[in-house]
Design goal:
mainly alpha, Arp2/3 complex 21 kDa subunit ARPC3
Length: 189
């Protein structure tokens, strides 16, 4: 049997831990005039995808967003409430779900390696999140898409650093603690 109560409990625990990690990484923020602050939360989204994979990673992100929707201050700068889903950051928040999925899909498409993990974090954790975030930010702020995309480039150096950090942390965690990835230790007979 591949799915029993123990496996489900472990999966739920890993999802909750990564949701908590995403929340904690949002505690320190650097506000910008664009309305979208620089935070570590996207690092948490990338890690959820690379470590938990394309099925569980988005669930960790979704848990954070549900907690925010019911009003808990779990987003960057202690924000929460349904209003965050109609503001300039709404697209980025929704993009986190798709970003974690794509990151997990790419990272887990074969043996975990530095290059596959790096590509996954850049494509899923940056590209996909921007693909959702930039158009919504432009629409909410009443701006043209081109200038909004151009202004978003201010985030790219920091996001690339987060992608590099997520790659290093993923590989280190894989070596140090494979059960975090849902890999069971082989018991000696």
């Amino acid at each position: 049997m591949t799915d029993n109560r123990g496996d489900t409990g472990r999966d739920l625990a890993r999802i909750a831990i990564f949701a908590a990690l995403i929340i904690v990484l949002g505690m320190v923020t650097v506000p910008l005039p664009t309305g979208v602050p620089i935070t570590g939360q996207t690092l948490g989204v990338m890690l959820a995808g690379t470590v938990l994979g394309p099925r569980r990673g988005p669930l960790a992100v979704l848990l954070v967003l549900v907690l925010a929707a019911i009003g808990l201050p779990v987003l960057a700068g202690g924000h929460g409430g349904i209003a965050v889903f109609v503001g300039p950051t709404a697209g980025y928040l929704i993009g986190w779900i798709a970003g974690a999925f794509v990151t997990g899909l790419i990272a887990r498409s074969g043996r975990i390696s530095w290059w596959r993990t790096g590509i996954a974090t850049v494509v899923g954790g940056i590209g996909v999140v921007y693909m959702f975030g930039v158009p919504v930010q432009a629409a909410v702020m009443g701006l043209a898409l081109g200038p909004t995309a151009l202004s978003s480039l201010i985030f790219l150096p920091g996001d690339l650093l987060k992608a590099a950090a997520a790659t290093v942390l993923t590989l280190a965690l894989r070596r140090a603690y494979p059960p975090a990835f849902g890999i069971r230790a082989v018991r000696a007979a």
